[in-house]
Amino acid sequence: MKRNTHITSPESYPTDMPSNQDDPVNITTHALKVETMETALAAARTAVFELDLASDTSKVSTTWRELMDVSSSEDVDFQTEWRRRIHPDDKTVIDCALADYVKGRTPRVAVEYRLRSRDGQDWLWMRTDAEATEWDAEGNALNLVGTQRDITDRKRAELALQGSEGQFRSLMNNAPIGTALASLEGKWLATNSAMAAFLGYSEEELKCTDFQSITHEDDLEKCMSCAKKLLDGEDDAFEIEKRYVRPAGEVVWGHLCVVLVRSESGQPLHYIAQVLDITESKKLDFLRNEFMSIIAHELRTPVTAIVGALDMLDLACSHGSIEKVQKLVKIAKRGGDRLRTALEDLLDFEQVSGGIFSLNLTEANIVDIITTALLKSQPLMDQHKVSASLISEESELHWECDPVLLDKTLRHLLSNAAKFSPENSEACVIVTRDTRQLTIRVKDSGPGIPESNYEKVFQPFWQQDPSDTRAQQGVGLGLTISRQAIRKMGGELSIQACGEGTGAEFLITLPGCPSQ
Question: For tag attachment on the chain, is the N or C end more exposed, with fewer CB atoms within 10 Å?
């Protein structure tokens, strides 16, 4: 093949005529074939050309003129027209493609390049594929036959995608938190330095492993279940807290966020994961729990002892003549009771907020639980000069509950009834049941709660009237703890509308079937 020849971009077209040119049937058939081929090429937007290497002239199809925006009436040199519009930076690309074909390094000429549009306002992307079909006795190619296609839309999309991928990789590499691409099987495809530093591996070491092998065994099942939901289309993304194991065995905590990337047809491609290091936060949680455990032991025990001693002193002095001592003892006892109640509320709230509220469901006599709560609340009722009674059609009513949590809730509600009811009024506890649920109502005779505050009263530390509530004593955690306790049992604690000024009524509902 001659080394100084150039590829052309025009289309090849059928030029051979039947050997019997006098046969009108053959001529007609050939014409139909040519027309059919031209139609197919036009529909596919594919141009065909033949370049005569000896004369450096081309023959092209109609589609080539359309691609090049050359009208059928124009008399142009196809090879010259094509060459003058090649992007300067792509001429070398074309020459190299031709040289590779000539030297046998490639089976055909295949090259993508830019051509300026006819009006000179834009650059179009083209692809040319060509091969020689005729050779001389010395093995030199006499021609090139090939196709030319406009690939502008595809090429621009590819370049845009490359730009997006470049931006993504730049963002990933510079992200301050761990970011990675993982295959559907869990293999690390790419990671940034923040991820490598968090996990304790180099980026190259991570590519030789998968997320399963460095996930703590106690968290692996949950993580795999979340990933399966992504693959099944049940979720678009998931977030979990999980532990990872570093090479030396050190365990670190991460807040993991994962999304699944899919193709345009919806096929899963890979995962994008981000991990925020929350190890220090978890350590602080542990220390906080340890601190609260110490508080529970070191404060609750002496407070109980103080209150117990004051109780005994109160009894010993109850019939004495030293009235001032009795008065001081009672003040100290009320202060100790208040301190103990506040401390218990704080510890209970810590358990609620930490999700470590223990639950012990059992079938118990609800009437007995309410009666016990009323007895425990009697001193506070007497202090505020409020009475309380139980209304129940049954002397025994067995239902599944946690007796400790239900007792705690009832005492909180009775405490509120005592504090906010006027003197010489009565609070009542009404218990009913049907086949679906148990209902306990705690109603007082106080000023009631505005409907706009029905949900606010269950918020931690919320005070409807801070000055009044402080006078009534309390840290504002009782209702928060009570609602969480009832919900822990599968029930609900809410406020029943009573009308302003007609008292407040709290409604406890517990689901399940009664014990027969």
Answer: C
Residue 203: what pLDDT? 86
Helices 478-488 and 323-353: angle between axes, nearest 10 degrees? 50
Domains of the chain, by residue range, sit at 24-150, 165-277, 287-353, 362-511
Place of tokens 């590499």: 173
Are 425 and 386 within 8 A, CB to CB? yes
The answer to whether the 24-150 and 165-277 domains have the same CATH topology is yes
| CA pair distance 96, 298, nearest whole angstrom | 85
Provide the pairing of β-strand 505-511 with 437-443. Answer: antiparallel
Q: Return the ∠ at Cα 444 (arms to 441 and 445), rounded to 5°.
A: 145
Q: Are 216 and 251 in contact (CB under 8 A)?
A: yes
Cα–Cα distance, 130 to 110 (Å, whole number): 7
- Distance separating alpha carbons of residues 131 and 146, to the nearest angstrom: 6
C-alpha to C-alpha distances, 133 to 88, 294, 340, nearest whole angstrom: 29, 92, 101
Q: What is the structure's pLDDT at 296? A: 61
CB-based burial label for 87 (10 Å; 0-12, 13-18, 19+): middle
Position 500 confidence tier, pLDDT thresholds 50, 70, 90: low
Residues whose CB is less than 8 angstroms from the CB of residue 127 and which lie 6 or more positions away in sequence, other chains included:
110, 111, 112, 148, 149, 151
Identify the three-state secondary structure at position 130: strand
Question: Rounded to an integer, what distance in angstroms lies between the CA atom of residue 306 and that of residue 293?
Answer: 20
Distance CA 130, CA 149 (A): 12
State which fold the 24-150 domain adopts. Answer: Beta-Lactamase (3.30.450)
Q: Which of 1-15, 77-91, 237-251, 482-496 has the lowest mean pLDDT?
A: 1-15
User: Which one is the CATH code of 362-511: 3.90.550.10, 2.60.120.560, 3.10.129.10, 3.30.565.10?
Assistant: 3.30.565.10
For 165-277, the fitting CATH number among 3.40.47.10, 3.40.1180.10, 3.30.360.10, 3.30.450.20 is: 3.30.450.20
Question: Can you state the angle between helices 403-420 and 366-383, rounded to 10 degrees?
Answer: 30
The residue written with tokens 């990337």 in the block is 261
